[in-house]
Amino acid sequence: MHRIIATFLILLAGGLALVLPQSRAARAETLSIGISQFPSTLHPLIDAMLAKTYVLAMTQRNITSYDQDWRLVCLLCTELPTIENGGAVPETLADGKQGIAITYKLQPGATWGDGTPVTSADMVFTWEVGLHPKSGVANLEFFRRILAVEVIDAKTFVLHLDRIDYTYNSLPLDLLPAHLERPIFEADPAQYRNRTTYDTNPTHRGLAFGPYRLSELVSGSKLVLEANPTWWGKPPAFDRITVRVIENTAALEANLLSGGVDMIAGELGVTLDQALGFEKRHGDKYEILYKSGLIYEHIDLNLDNPILADARVRKALLHALDRETISQKLFEGRQPAAHASVSPLDWVHSETTPRYAYDPQRAAALLDEAGWSVLKKGIRHNAAGEALVLEIMTTAGNRSRELVQQVLQSQWRQIGIDMRIRNEPARVFFGETLSKRKFPALAMFAWISSPELLPRTTLSSDHIPTTENNWAGQNYTGFRNDRMDALIKAIEVELDREKRKALWAELQDLYVAELPALPLYWRANAYILPKWLRGVQPTGHQGTTTNWVENWHSEGR
What we know:
Dipeptide-binding Protein, domain 3; alpha+beta; disordered N terminus; Dipeptide-binding Protein, domain 1; 20 strands
């Protein structure tokens, strides 16, 4: 009898040993986020895609970033270096020009997930990758202006820059883990973008030093993040965050209602028109936040296309669009028409920049001047008998963009342009078509900026992606303009705010005169959150809410 009781107690003890972890697992805090795009890569320096930025902000941190109040702050550094506090010191360069030396101190506890400390060596390696002409990074100029990285100690380094510009102490950079990536890079820099650990082994612990690390990736479907034990900062409240990718925004909404996801990210979620309708139907069950910001929905024009190389055709395209009606009818006025590439919310916005009014007659006259004057079955032709046919592309499954496309197609048809629609999944559109300039005519998407962000990578002639530079740069239009190049350089080094604003005004005037892209509207993001979620603070700029994911928590769940 005693033996039976003893056996029972052993089994009971064993049972309790099994039940207790299950009980803890049941109590574990989890969060499921729905987004509409899957990253084309997780490498911080390759491809400019918001989906990647959103995820990486949970696993890594920029050295500096703008916060919710649009102030520059440290994330990975310990104190923002300034000229005033002695962290940044002007210096005379060998050629007699003025440069600046800026000292950054990294968080002492910052450690990659495999236990390797985040050090100055990672900064040196990141700079070497960014500087290499074959690495294929998105922002070449950023690295070119760094003359040297001087290592003071494991956690302190000095950047020697070739100029003093108005953003001298901004370092919006994700460091690369030198201990993992250097051997791959040095083996073949030209093939590095195809062999990086971020793509070949994305769940490697050594890729993360943020509050979370990636534990599972299902391509095109989901990314699972778990709390990172090496994170130095405030412990995150959620043990696990699952980012589910549902590219069709109608299906994304359905997944929220069915419980497939807890929230929809404003950065990459449902479109504004969907959110407005959702709020009317389900606003009592969810917290819905709207945030206007520096999000420029526009159409890049491939200027190598001989039709679009003619500025008269570009101007006709814009005159034929009734953007004010699009804003009112589709977005209830919450996404105002854009008239240039600088947001009215940004202090450098110019009120005097000329605007293109909706004027179909003027558009028709411009097309006539450009030689597209023969109408056949409602479509314009030139003297050689060629039809005025163009193609517009965007991200497939984005209901708002697809609806706008149809409106644009209809309005352009009214002036005799045959506009064809062909869309692609976001990871293909951003990762291949845009980055390698494969779109034949028009590409609709958004640029997301930080305050007073200089459009160096998108408008400078030396940032056009080519096979020679391994598709580095973001000047997808192929825009080449000497005055624009000069303005960008002049703005960068002008420290006087009023003089700089005047230069910004000239840049905006030149932009609307040349029209390398067609302004559409300034986007507002809609965040659909469960009522129990706290701590999500939209920024209105390219710094995503996930930069502060450790502040998210549940209340009364």
